[in-house]
């Protein structure tokens, strides 16, 4: 009875798929927007291997931290600075023992167009002359980590006061990069990873200089589980972010895995 055998086999396959689907879990990740390209790739790899799904929400770290404080249903938070993770920790909104320093990054000056002339970033850099009446695109300098690091670096180099009137602030670092890519701003300050990882903008900008490490605090991306969320699968995905496969993606896209 080949028909009956085929029916039984189809039924068995269907039941197996149904059981697999029932075991699949969803992980909601709130992550700094500078992580988008890398995290999307890692999430797709992990989802393909496990059947689980990562739903990621990207924005400035300060905005995401505020949403978590207001009760947004995030399982995992990846911040672009320790400040906003510390803020949540002080309110017992993260699982303290899950917290780890995941990545580092660099801070760079980018210019519109390919092949822009490099500059040496230091106290003698005449940024207003370089801008020539144009704007310097930066993420929000008082709340978004990329903007905070940028303002800190410019201040420590003695450049902030002269350039402050020319700064065009954006809600996150990718928006600052987009201003430079479109030519609306001739220069901008972003993470080194952004100039590599954003496919839509990377061909339209040039990295013309890297800010000296001592000009700003080390750029650190901490990660932690959000308190009050009973999601063991989120812990598995957090561990996956330090795996050799994830590390290879992060390194290729300009990040510096810290090895916790």
Automatic annotation (TrEMBL):
Residues holding molybdate: 34, 61, 146, 173, 191
Similarity annotation: Belongs to the bacterial solute-binding protein ModA family.
TM helices/strands, residue ranges: none
Entry protein name: Molybdenum ABC transporter, periplasmic molybdenum-binding protein ModA
Superkingdom of this protein's organism: Bacteria
Keyword Secreted annotated: no
Record-level GO BP terms: molybdate ion transport
Keyword line: Metal-binding, Molybdenum, Signal
UniProt GO molecular function: metal ion binding; molybdate ion binding; tungstate binding
GO CC list: outer membrane-bounded periplasmic space
Complex formation: The complex is composed of two ATP-binding proteins (ModC), two transmembrane proteins (ModB) and a solute-binding protein (ModA).
Leader sequence residues: 1-24
Record's keyword annotation contains tRNA processing: no
Family annotation (InterPro entries): ModA (IPR005950), ModA/WtpA (IPR050682)
SUPFAM superfamilies hit by this protein: Periplasmic binding protein-like II
